[in-house]
Structure formats: C-alpha cells, structure tokens
Amino acid sequence: MTADTTIILGIESSCDDTSIAVLKGNKILANVVASQLIHANYGGVVPEIASRNHQEMIWNTLQQALSIAKIEINQLDGIAVTKGPGLLGSLLVGVSFAKGLSLVTNKPLLGVHHMKAHILAHFISDANQCPPSFPFLCLTVSGGHTQIVLVKSALEMEIIGKTIDDAAGEAFDKAAKMLGLPYPGGPLIDKHGQLGDETKYTFSKPKIQNLDFSFSGVKTSIKYQLEKWKNEDADFVENNLPDLCASIQKTIVDILIEKCISATKQTGIKQFALAGGVSANSKLRNDFTNTLEALQVKTYIPKFEYCTDNGAMIAMAGKFLYDRNIFENQELCAQARLNF
Ligand code: KG4
Ligand code: ZN
Fold this sequence. Notes:
Layout: E1 7-12, E2 17-24, E3 27-35, H1 47-69, E4 78-84, H2 88-105, E5 109-113, H3 114-120, E6 136-141, E7 146-151, E8 157-162, H4 168-178, H5 186-193, H6 216-232, H7 236-267, E9 271-275, H8 282-294, E10 298-300, H9 311-323
Parallel strand pairs: 1-4, 4-5, 6-9, 9-10
Antiparallel strand pairs: 1-2, 2-3, 6-7, 7-8
The chain binds 5'-O-[(R)-(carboxyoxy)(hydroxy)phosphoryl]adenosine (KG4) and zinc ion.
Zinc ion binds at residues 114, 118, 142, 276-277, 309.
C-alpha cells in the first residue's frame, strides 16, 4: 500500500487564535498557533481587535508553518479554511487569505465547519490512539458550543443534544470572571481547582429530561452564593480560591458527564469522543474516561494541542472534503452562523 502524500494547509481564524497547519496524509507536519493574549485586558474577546490581529499575524503564521513543515507553497494540494461558525470579522480574514492563496497557487479551496473540525481532529495520526470508527458519539464543548453529536461519517453528523443557553466554556469563563480571574478563565479554574476540595461547595444543577444542557442556572447560583459569602467575609474568594474552583469545575463536569451517560444508553453506541476547547480540562478528561469506560464505552480524548482552536483540525477536516472532491470557489463566504 502506498502512503497518502496529499498535503493540505489548514487555516483557522474563527475567534482569537490565528493558526495554520500543514497536514501530509493524516500526519501533522506543522501546527503554528498565535494566541491573542490582548483580550485578557478586556475580560473577553473584542471582535474588532481580534480581526485586526488576525490580519497582522496571518502572513507570519503561514511562513512559520511552511518553514517548520519544510514545504514550499506550490507543493500544497489543497487549502482548507474555517468558513464558520465564529466571529464574522475574524472569519473574513482567514477566508479572504485562503481565497487569495487558492487563486495564486491554483490549488483547490476547502471550506470547513469549525465544530465538525473539532470532532475530526480525532483522525489526525496519533501513535498512542487509533481513531474511532463510525458511528460514534462526540461531546463537543467549546467557548460557544456544547453539543452531543452522533457522528455517522466524516460528513454526516447529527446534533442529538445541545445547550439551551450558555456553552460549557462560557460557564467556566463567566464563573472565573466572578472569581476575579482574567479571561479566558476556564484553564485557570482547572489550574487552581487541582489544589482544591471539590466537595466543599455545591451549586444548583439543571433538571432537563432530554439530552440538552443548560448552564445559566449554575451561573446564577454561583453569583448569588458568592455575593452572600463575600458579604460575610470580604476576603472569601481569596482565601478559598482552590476549593471554589474545584467545586465549580465539578458542577460543570458532572452536568456534562450525566448527559454523556444518557446519550450512550439511549443510542446504544459504545464509542464516545471528546472535542473542543473545554476538552483540555483535566477533570473532564479523567471523569469522561473513567465513567464511560466503566460502562464498557470506548473513549477517545484528543491530544492536548488539538483541543483548543488549531489549524491542524481544519486541515484534517479539509482532507475529508478533498478526498470527496468537495471544493469551494471564489464565492466562498464567511458565515458567523453555520448549521451542521
Ligand atoms: O474550542 P475553543 O478553543 O474556542 C472556541 O471555539 O470557543 O474553546 C475555548 C474555550 C474557552 O471557554 C476556554 O475557557 C475553555 O475552552 N477552556 C477550558 C480549558 N481550556 C480551555 N475550560 C476549562 N478547563 C480548561 N483546561
Ligand atoms: Zn473551537
């Protein structure tokens, strides 16, 4: 069997990470991520600043990726780009750049759905883990989305559960903000929580019968309890930060895991993958594996570098489109909202 030597460039600019990767076959040769730390000063992503930064970073990011991969631009077989969903101005930078590259190199343009790419990151070659086989379930948890997806094939996916309000990443970030932690607070809750007692505080959990999620009640419960505790002791958060982070993290992760258990019971599918930025969370990774494997469900956890936004997953998703000759033309538009 001859090795697959197709080379795909993956361009990601949907939010606040400018990332470009080079994929050969299903192996990543380079995955350069330029994260925009400036948004921490504003407590959240400022769309206008994000798109300007993408504009400034994208050329150098491409040069770095090609140089690490030792690939000349004319060796590329296809150019994959996130077409949505995401911040419109940010997406526009990546899409316009990809269209320009496609035009000058005369290589096909591949338009990728950001959330599907998070899922398809599982097909990037990994010495430690085989990819799942179809059909499988995937919990996709990011800053903007929380979904349970039934993945029938690389191109056919059905959302069987979704958040009716905030996303899990948003819940982490908003809780972190209430604790006075900078944006994005999710990784900081994880870090401080590792030193804390997760059973110290309890927050109210939603009671939703189907596979949908809700995090707005948790957020309100954290807000009011914190206000009460801070009224009693002005230094309450400072003195109890690890326990607070661990308890908040446990509440959010428990909500996610309960729905995963219901989804596997309802569908009878015994393979479950995890995807999206929140899959970097250490407790979620542990609990997801331990709880589901105890139910004889095989679990798939992405490599850490493919959890948060990255060009590698865009290149991998683009490869599936390339193999099926699903190409875009110069009329490709960035779409802030994009259905599955
Ligand atoms: O997928 P992603 O990189 O960007 C979007 O498409 O939204 O996800 C970003 C989200 C943010 O809300 C961030 O706080 C969260 O993922 N996140 C985490 C961790 N690492 C990233 N949340 C909890 N624990 C982490 N270790
Ligand atoms: Zn993402």
